[in-house]
User: Fold these one by one.
Assistant:
Number 1:
Amino acid sequence: MSATWTRKDLLGLRDMSREEIELILKTAASFKEISTRPIKKVPTLRGRTVVNFFFEPSTRTRASFEIAEKRLSADSLNFSSSGSSIEKGETLLDTGKNIEALKVDLLVMRHPASGAPHRLARHIKPGIINAGDGTNEHPTQALLDMLTLKEKKGKIEGLHVAFIGDILHSRVARSNIWGLTKLGAKVTVCGPRTLLPVEIETLGVNVSTDVDEVISEADAITLLRIQLERQQEPFFPSVREYAKTFGITVDRLKKAKKDLLIMHPGPINRGVELADEVANGPHSVILDQVTNGIAVRMAVLYLLSGVIGKEKSKDVDSIAQYSSH
């Protein structure tokens, strides 16, 4: 059954259907061709205004959204909390309401508080795309990961995908778990016990602390960095010991399937979660993920803009009907 996109916002994959996820992936695949053209631009979102609303540092996600917006011919504005009225005590809702008053269409929002985009979406008309909220979700990262898997493996259903590292603080892992399990993949999470969420098994995943066993069985592995900035206390003795126990090296990959995919959402801590030779090696599709991020974000902007456009058309029609009386 094919889905029709009806959501104003993209806040996470937890509440999305398999059909909606597949629609985004299908739309993203069709947008990939634009990036291969000599002139990488189409007029699809001409006249739309998108605000990049970032409260945390970002390189790949922010740049990817900005490029996606430009390739769709949208007008974009970059906003950060640094130097804004938020530093003077303005609330998130007041800031959002002021941006809404500028008559923008979409907000791409990253925030350190889990649930912040969801709260704001209930109070403003512009569509909101969650670009990462606390330790909750990072839906477009998971979608680009799934697009990469589908391209490289030809399918997602039946694949065994593993996540190794700091699962406890990873919004990337959570979004991927919701998305991959809905598309029929087997998911395993692996890391130190202290970095595995309590009752993570209830999300339908397998849990392991044996890296070598996971490597030998997986079709794809996503390495997750240790998010020291989110840790209030040490979760393992030292980074050196973590690298020795859980880091992926060339020697460890001798146990892997020949067509194993190595993935990483970035930024990479080389020599910690994976060695240079692995990050740059034949199994790595890390740069393919970056490329696919543009297509996925173009697809999301396009689909949400269509819903926003219909809502605006209703507003115009109601105004015209009122004026005719």
Number 2:
Amino acid sequence: MKRMLAALIVVIAMAVAAPAYAADGFTLSGTATANGNMVQLVSEFSDTSTANDFGAISFSVPSGATLATLTTLSAEFNVTNDNCGGGSPRFQITIGGKNVFVYLGPAPSFNTCANGWISSGNLVGTSDQCRVDTSQLIAGSQCTTWAAAVAALGAQPITAIQLVVDGGWSQPDKEQTVLVRKVTINNQTFITPGKPSAPGTGNPAALCKGERARLGTAAFNELWGKNGNDRNAFGKCVSTMAHAKNAGQTQQQIMTAVATCRAKGLSGARLGACVAAKDGVVATKTEAQENAKKRKKKP
């Protein structure tokens, strides 16, 4: 249902990742980027690199928390590319240096999620078979229930709680993208929609780095670059995201266009040009669109 190697990579990466949004009670690692009032997590599988293999959000743990004292564990999520699968998305609850996995999506396969935003509901106390996996701590318990997990591990202290996406390997295009918001752990809710986002709240540089990693440099430069050699591409992206009224919406428009253009088999500069033509973002016009605009300005 998952790759154990990926789970270990997540734990190690979060231990060394630079803090982000710590004041809001969560930190980001891997490909995770805060887009306005949501977080985007991407897993892009490659046979040669694990650089973009996972995204994770690590939340502050309630004082003295154990499985037995957790009262609420829930999230709203939206799988925009392609689907649930590969044991992802999931919560990871760390106990004694190992993880209890709590899978999101519909039981019992957790492989097919409906389009749009989905509420996980409160996963504490769920009776779904196989919703919980305690096999890292108890051999042979990959498919279990919340009650069984509490009975076996309920008194042991929880040291970390994360929400992880790393199932790109299981998808037809080797990519999995999930938006997350409104994560509730006991009496605290993180990444709450409804609050207006100031320009730049979505960490523009991180958004653009993630976008460049997903598109590839040639496509990214074609999408954003406006000088002769496209060397201003990254700066143009960061500036646009920093001044956007809703960076999350802008990023989502671009990612939707990326999925459409990739489905046509495009890559490199052709991919960038296709995205620019389809994303509806004023700052990413194609060269043909820019030239047409210049011709209209001439007397």
